[in-house]
Amino acid sequence: MTASTPDPYQLSRDAAAAIAEASGVPSHDLALVLGSGWSGAADLLGETVWQADATSIPGFRPPAVAGHVGTLRSLRVEGTGARVLVLGARTHFYEGAGVDAVVHGVRTAAATGARTMVLTNGCGGIDPSWRPGTPVLIRDQINFTGATPLVGANFVDLTDLYTPALREIAREVDPSLDEGVYMQFSGPTYETPAEVQMARTIGAHLVGMSTALEAIAAREAGMDVLGISLVTNLAAGISGEKLSHEEVLEAGREAGPRISRLLAETVRRITTGTDGGAA
């Protein structure tokens, strides 16, 4: 780091300290990133004990995408007492702020003590049987951004990046859940039909513009990771229809009640047995 470039890990520790001071919650057990269509889950989890504009906490940026909220929330999960940090402010790689800004929320969550990271997104589906509104568990990923949050000889094992035991918990909630491989493109353009065919050829089932870099940062921090995608549209060239952000938002609105219940119950089961600490 140079004198003019802050240490991103220290910035995340500063952010965690600011959250603890502002919320009165000294630590969290699980963190949740809410992507397109997933915001309703937080309201079903339990009591909100603190909420603030994300920009009031060091290192967080306002949302740049319509349909994303720009708040941070601390929740006490009903029935378990566990503490969940809800990250409604997601910085995307295509915003040009750098990889450290993209993964700042994940690193901050780890610095608050969270040992589990739940990442959600809205994405394009390559499998035509997954209609818009279908939730899909992420089994593995392909990082096609050409970037990484890791620096130097920092060799992190990604063999089981998305924790199998957490996927099993989600399937206990909804046995119909399929799973697939998520591929992150840089964006902000949607993928071309040729790029989608390439993605399919190398093993991807889902394509989007988030999540993969965050998952790497979470694993670097030693966190267990659960990823769930909402198929908001069939990827370019699969259906023959043109893509639009309005389509993504509409699919999220229609699927919202179902996926919110799925996510809330999954998080509740993950945190069962967690010592939520003092009230």
Describe the structure.
The chain is an alpha/beta fold and 279 residues long. The protein has one domain (8-270): 3-Layer(aba) Sandwich (Rossmann fold), CATH 3.40.50.1580. Helix content is 31%, strand content 23%. The protein has eight helices and nine strands. It has helices at 8-23, 41-45, 99-102, 104-111, 164-173, 193-201, 212-220, 245-270; strands spanning 30-33, 46-53, 71-77, 83-87, 116-125, 134-143, 178-184, 206-208, 224-234. It has a five-stranded mixed beta barrel with strand order 5-8-7-6-9, surrounded by four helices. Helix 6 links the parallel strand 7 and strand 8 (206-208). Helix 4 (104-111) runs parallel beside helix 7 (212-220) and helix 5 packs across helix 8 (245-270). The longest helix has 26 residues, at 245-270. 48% of the residues are buried. The mean pLDDT is 91.
